Amino acid sequence: MGKFAVKETATGVKFNLLATNGQIIGVSEVYSGKEACLKGIESVRKNAEIANLEDQTADPVVAAVNPKFEIYTDKAGEFRFRLKARNGEIILSSEGYKAKASCENGIESVRKNAPEAEVVEE
Fold this sequence. Notes:
Strand order of the largest sheet: 3-2-1-8
Strand content: 25-35%
Helix content: 10-25%
Mean pLDDT: 96
Order of helices and strands: EEEHEEEEHE
């Protein structure tokens, strides 16, 4: 089972979603406090399973409604995904992947791990 690792930073509180093997699947924004961070975790749990998929690297791009995962390429040409809540806010972002298939696997890992992941403090 994966876990949400909650961590204090110099400017607030953030979380990482970790897979069973400890790899970071996604990271959150920095929240003003722990309570807001925990609400962010609940939002990821709630939205990950039901999120649509919008592949912004496809031609043509087929727009999806929120909540959704967006696949896109960064400035380095790597594939990334972000999970957006119903209100359009980004609630989870991925690392860069060299292959699109790896990025898609990352999304599936979020769908699988987020709903049951325990919350731990680091």
